[in-house]
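HUMAN: Mind sharing a backbone?

ASSISTANT:
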Amino acid sequence: MTPGFRNPFKLLDFAFVMQEKISQQHGPVIDLALDTISKGKQALVFVNSKPSAEKQAEEISKRCNGKLDELAEKVLNVLSTPTKQCKRLAGCIKKGIAFHHAGLDQKQKELIEDGFRAGEIKIICCTPTLAAGMDLPAFRTILTSLKRYTNHGMDYIPVLEYEQMAGRAGRPKYDSYGEAICIAGTDAQKEELIEKYLNGEVEHIYSKLAAEPVLRTYVLSLISSGLVRSKEDLMKFFSRTFFAFQFKDLKKIEELLVRVLGMLKDWGFVKGSSNEDFVSADSMNEKYIVTLLGKRVVELYLDPLTANKLVEGLKKKCEKNEFSYLQLISHTLEMRPLLRIKKSEYEEVQEKIALIEENLLEDGFFDEFEDFENSIKTAWFFEEWINESSEEQLLEKFGVRPGEIKYKLNLSDWLLFSCIELSKLSLLNENVSNLTKLRVRLKYGIKEELMPLVRLKGIGKTRARKLYSNGIKDVRGLKKIGLGELKLLIGEKTAENIKKQLEMG
């Protein structure tokens, strides 16, 4: 064990590999990957971006001779229409190499992880998301870069994050030891990495209650559950938390809690048991309770700030359309990270803003104009989806991969459902019908005209569009068409299933 490397769970043979000291036949990462395979072992190659993971996997796969045609076919056909990314991934997997990042479909990730556990896939090129909690048979972890782009430019990752990645090597279930290998470009960089990661201290862990969105959510939840009934109760509760232990200044914590309580009262989520100001300095015992609206906010797992933003937006009197709602949910903390505007897209986005400005459901966006612009692009992405752009088209236009599309759609469904519930409680029922339709359209990625068809089990976007194009536009049309003709359009089993549903309905 290298002195100074603290790992209570296993022994790591830690090596820094100098680029000039290894075979330069293919480059350090490829040579290390091929060396791992030659030893009959497996490795994780950590890179700092999705494109890098894909490129590195392709470069390694060019030097390999695996023949995993069956697994590659499964990965390729996870989506109804394979994207370029699917084809790239399948091409790598055929050779026993894979890439893994948040842009993949969940089923593709599972197939890759299972293939790696089975020993079929030898190398996975991945982003650090694979470092958290995964137990895989990796003899080596190869860390190509220990820097990441931050608000301060390129900076070293935390020691704790490094140990998470290094710790994927040599898992006790699979190996007696493992190797975590970092690539250093110079002797000076080698010494710097040793000092920081072998001899350096792991960073302190900080309470998440220090983040105001978390604090808002917890205070409202505590009041809603009845665990606290006064400011005094709240102070007693928080004084026993790790947050208070770390923060130490109880007076400052009290000021934070008073401010949060004031927000919750102003937004109509809590109220005092009397008409007095229950958050004043001399009202420690003033009782307060959650309102019906506040209780629903807790049940919806929303940040109270987001819930208030949604309610205020839904109240706005203007001509609302799909984009109005899509931009409202896009400009929330829950939807981050938003799609960022590229320089080449700037003028197009500004034109979009000029066209829809009067239909937007929020005011004061100039205080955070960059976030606002990004919310426009994110809403635009959703708009393209409900107008039946394919996953391939969305990847080309917005750079959003299939896995990211599903993630964003799940968030949008949650936020739109929240808008429906908040509209009902706030007596804003004029929004409910439009929001309900929008949820269906986002779920299937369809125009409104296909909604009557997708309500039937077994009919998704592709089949619904095919039926519509052949003159079958609703349930009445499905009832009229003969079974034989329907089979030709959507397949035998699906056609029979649809006819059974119609008979039962």
